[in-house]
Amino acid sequence: DIQMAQSPSTLSASVGDRVTITCRASQSISSRLAWYQQKPGKAPKLLIYKASNLKSQVPSRFSGSGSGTEFTLTISSLQPDDFATYFCHQYSTYSWTFGQGTKVEIK
Amino acid sequence: EEQLVESGGDLVQPGGSLRLSCAASGLNVGDNYMTWVRQAPGRGLEWVSVIFSAGNTYYADSVQGRFTISRDTSKNTLFLEMNNLRADDTAMYYCVKGFDPWGQGTLVIVSS
Question: Where are the beta strands (DSSP E) in chain B?
Answer without folding.
Answer: 3-7, 11-12, 18-25, 34-39, 45-51, 57-59, 67-72, 77-82, 91-97, 106-110
